[in-house]
Design a protein that fits this description.
The strands form four sheets. This protein has a five-stranded antiparallel sheet with strand order 2-1-5-4-3, covered by helices on one side. Strands 7-9-10-12-11 form a five-stranded mixed sheet. Helix 2 packs across helix 9 and helix 4 (200-228) packs across helix 8. The protein is α/β, with parallel strands linked by helices. The chain contains 13 helices and 18 strands.
């Protein structure tokens, strides 16, 4: 009874498994003749198999197989197209072949293959993108090199232009000052008596104004190149800021008088207070701002206000000019930009450079304007104060005996000018035309100071400095060059020069530098 129950139960289980797995089967003897086959083989597209027939006539995947081989075929296509999994199970008397629906496994396999194909495609695309990225990187590097070269050429060009302009400007400004001084020595009564009303001083003042204006344009061009390459360095020092504002007022007063525009200066600054800031950059900003205001104002006035609150310098420049439209106000800070209807000469760099310089000095430039109602430009700068009882003497430290200076300068006009200015101040001067002659002169005689240009024929100022260092000559050398490039100054200082003057210079610049060096 129990054995019968067990057999029935096993049959039920087998039926459930067969149905669930969609299992089909067939059995063959060792001669590959069919012994038995399940009816559901037709579900997979196989024809009914008669016992005793050759299995190879009915099922293709059995061709070439023998009855003793145990084998698993994971995925096989059936005649109906349903993927099947086949297992060959040999025994002593027969070979049993089980067939199972493998649609799920086929789908999974197809999905895995699809994922593998997608991954392969992604890898291919990634490699392609990497190649493109590498090419773009190389192209960007090439562009950067071209931009750097263009920037270097621009800076080199601007430096060259500055150098070429400064050399003749040194002669123009210097000789104009000499002629002006000589005219002042002539009796004011004598000239009218001989030649009538003499306008020569006015002519000379016009030459001076034009020369200084040209110099400011050159400096703005050079500074624009430096700002692009981040080469401008702010050098704060104790400065009498009252004198800076007075200088700007004196410089621009003739221009405002010529245009019949009133230039007002309200300077509320302690006369003995020194503020720690870059005086040359402050002066440059003021000349640009006040000069612009005077240039664009044809009727009315320009007002320069300056005051100290705590240790902050407040500066305002206000004009009654035509004003600036809101549209142009957004463009006015761009380099080289000028209003299309101004009709005024200039490079369009003054405001751009002034704004950058103010920022480098720790301030911010603000512009307020309304068309037809004038313009107000203002900024504040940190200005730590130092008070002195007596003004500093730039000549302090110069020996009482007459100075003996060696001048190395290849430009004849400038050499004549510097010699005349120094001799007039009681200074002995010997002059040579190049660095080699300067080295020879120092071998033969003693000098208190050497004034030396950098760019000279036969032997440059750099080479002369190196030669003097090699000989152990301790005579102090001050470079006087038309090059305002920081790299040139740094190279000269590295070679041992004690000071660096940028042309154009006047006799007070030279004597002041001599006082610093010899003290």
């Amino acid at each position: 009874m129990n054995n019968t129950v067990d057999v029935i139960v096993q049959q039920k289980i087998n039926e459930q498994l067969f149905q669930k797995l969609e299992l089909a089967y067939f059995c063959v003897d060792h001669s590959m003749r069919v012994k038995d086959a399940s009816d559901n083989l037709i579900d997979y597209g196989y024809e009914p198999i008669r016992p005793g027939s050759d299995i190879e006539d009915h099922i293709d995947f059995m061709i070439g197989l023998d009855s003793h081989t145990e084998l698993d075929l994971p995925i096989v296509a059936s005649p109906s197209g349903i993927p099947i999994s086949v297992s060959l199970l040999p025994s002593e008397n027969q070979l049993t072949v089980l067939i199972v629906n493998a649609s799920t496994q086929a789908d999974q396999r197809q999905l895995l293959q699809q994922k593998a194909n997608e991954n392969e495609l992604l890898v291919f695309q990634q490699k392609k993108l990497m190649v493109q990225l590498e090419q773009a990187s190389l192209e960007l590097e090439k562009k950067n090199m071209q931009l750097e070269e263009a920037s270097r050429l621009q800076t080199s060009f601007l430096s060259g232009v500055s150098h070429e302009f400064r050399t003749p400007l040194t002669s123009i400004i210097g000789y104009t000052n000499l002629v002006k001084q000589d005219l002042q020595k002539v009796s004011q009564e004598l000239v009218p008596r001989i030649v009538g009303n003499d306008d020569s001083p006015n002519y000379l003042r016009a030459v001076q104004r034009s020369s200084k204006h040209l110099l400011s344009l050159v400096e703005n061009l050079l500074d624009h190149g430096k700002l692009d390459s981040n080469e401008i360095v702010i050098r704060p020092k104790a400065t009498n800021i009252l004198e800076v504002f007075e200088d700007v007022e004196l410089l621009l007063k003739p221009l405002s008088n010529t245009k019949q525009v009133e230039l007002r200066a309200n300077i509320d600054l302690p006369p003995k207070a020194l503020a720690v800031l870059d005086d040359s950059r402050l002066r440059q900003c003021l000349i640009n701002l006040v000069g612009n205001a005077v240039k664009f104002t044809d009727i009315g006035s320009v007002t320069l206000d300056a005051s100290l609150t705590g240790e902050v310098l407040h500066v305002t420049v206000e004009d009654t000019g035509p004003g600036i439209s809101q549209q142009d106000l957004e463009k006015i800070r761009l380099p080289f930009w000028q209003g299309s209807d101004t009709g005024k000469a200039g490079t369009g760099l003054g405001l751009t450079i002034t704004e950058r310089l103010v920022e480098l000095m720790g301030g911010e430039l603000l512009i307020k304007s309304e068309l037809g109602k004038g313009t107000v430009v203002e900024f504040e700068l940190p200005a730590p104060l130092v008070y002195l009882d007596e003004p500093a003497n730039s000549l302090e430290g110069i020996p009482v005996k007459p100075l003996r200076i060696l001048l190395a300068e290849d430009d004849t006009d400038i050499a004549d000018l510097v010699c005349m200015m120094l001799i007039e101040r009681g200074i002995e001067v010997d002059r040579v035309e190049n660095g080699a002659l300067a080295v020879e002169a120092l071998k033969k005689g003693r000098y208190d100071l050497v004034l030396m240009d950098i760019h000279m024929p036969i032997m440059t100022g750099y080479d002369a400095l190196a030669e003097l260092n090699a000989r152990g000559d301790t005579t102090p050398v001050v470079v006087m060059s038309a090059s305002a490039v920081d790299a040139d100054k740094a190279k000269a200082i590295e070679l041992g020069c004690r000071g660096y003057l940028v042309k154009p210079v006047d006799v007070d610049d030279i004597i002041g530098m001599a006082g610093q060096v010899l003290s």
